[in-house]
């Protein structure tokens, strides 16, 4: 893979309502307004055929077994692999709202095997950094709109948080835990500083695979 001045691959992960979409948007806007080529992406991408099936499942209008929906979430990321690779290799930084780790966390929280859940992610791009937005579930469930979709239940979210905690503890070289209970501006300042360091380091590093 090319190594010259590529863009950085930054992922935001965390439980529902932890602020991933708000913070990834702020980071994207900060980068583009300061002259850094960047693209903001979100998984699941509900725009493809696979994404539309995932949307129906999340909105409780379609039933699928746990293995099938797990593989569809993964397939949805595979749909974008080439595009992501091309963008990174031509110098665009990707700010991605949820990725493979959400895939693993939500399925493992249902009781599925960790290694089985990780297997279909193998061969996708590995992020340069994962910003894990962490806050107590009791606090997050008070934020707007919690409870509308399938997984938005307190006990389930606590199980999801346990998996994210485990991933963060095991992958300290590129996971960064961020205190998401602070104000939006304080959280963003933390993310912005960390992101700039990631951008500088990623420039000359080869892209790695999961
Ligand atoms: N899922 C899966 O199972 N497998 C997979 O592989 C993938 C996903 C990729 C949909 O995801 C579901 O898909 C999700 C996981 C599963 N589970 N559920 N349900 P989604 O990303 O489409 O979900 P979403 O509804 O767009 O986002 P979210 O995670 O629920 O929220 P968020 O993006 O983390 O938060 P936000 O939208 O930025 O903020 C939420 C609210 O809090 C909003 O009113 C903000 O103004 C407020 N907020 C944000 N930050 C703050 C601070 N710092 N202080 C106070 N208030 C704040
Ligand atoms: Mg969101």
UniProtKB/TrEMBL annotation:
> A single Gene Ontology molecular function, please?
dTMP kinase activity
Q: What class of enzyme is it?
A: transferase
Q: Tell me the ranges covered by the Thymidylate kinase-like domain, including all copies.
A: 12-191
Pathway it works in: Pyrimidine metabolism; dTTP biosynthesis
UniProt keyword list: ATP-binding, Kinase, Nucleotide biosynthesis, Nucleotide-binding, Transferase
User: Which cellular components does GO assign to this protein?
Assistant: cytosol; mitochondrion; nucleus
Q: What is its EC number?
A: 2.7.4.9
The alphabetized list of GO BP terms reads: dTDP biosynthetic process; dTTP biosynthetic process; dUDP biosynthetic process
User: This protein's superkingdom?
Assistant: Eukaryota
- One family name in Pfam for this protein: Thymidylate_kin
Q: What name does UniProt use for this protein?
A: dTMP kinase
Q: Which gene encodes it?
A: LOC105226249
């Amino acid at each position: 893979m090319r190594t010259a001045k590529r863009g950085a691959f930054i992922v935001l992960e965390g439980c529902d309502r932890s602020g991933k979409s708000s913070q990834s948007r702020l980071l994207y806007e900060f980068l583009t307004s300061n002259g850094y080529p960047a693209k903001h992406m979100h998984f699941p991408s509900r725009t493809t055929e696979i994404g539309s099936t995932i949307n129906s499942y999340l909105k409780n209008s379609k039933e699928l077994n746990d293995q099938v929906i797990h593989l569809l979430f993964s397939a949805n990321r595979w749909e974008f692999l080439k595009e992501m690779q091309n963008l990174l290799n031509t110098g665009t930084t990707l700010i991605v709202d949820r990725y493979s780790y959400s895939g693993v966390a939500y399925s493992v929280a249902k009781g599925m095997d960790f290694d089985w859940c990780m297997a279909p992610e193998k061969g996708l791009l590995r992020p340069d950094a994962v910003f894990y937005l962490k806050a107590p579930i009791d606090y997050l469930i008070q934020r707007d709109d919690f409870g509308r979709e399938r997984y938005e239940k307190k006990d389930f979210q606590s199980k999801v948080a346990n998996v994210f905690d485990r991933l963060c503890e095991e992958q300290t070289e590129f996971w960064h835990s961020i205190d998401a209970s602070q104000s939006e501006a304080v959280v963003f300042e933390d993310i912005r500083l960390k992101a700039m360091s990631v951008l500088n380091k990623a420039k000359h590093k080869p892209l790695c695979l999961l």
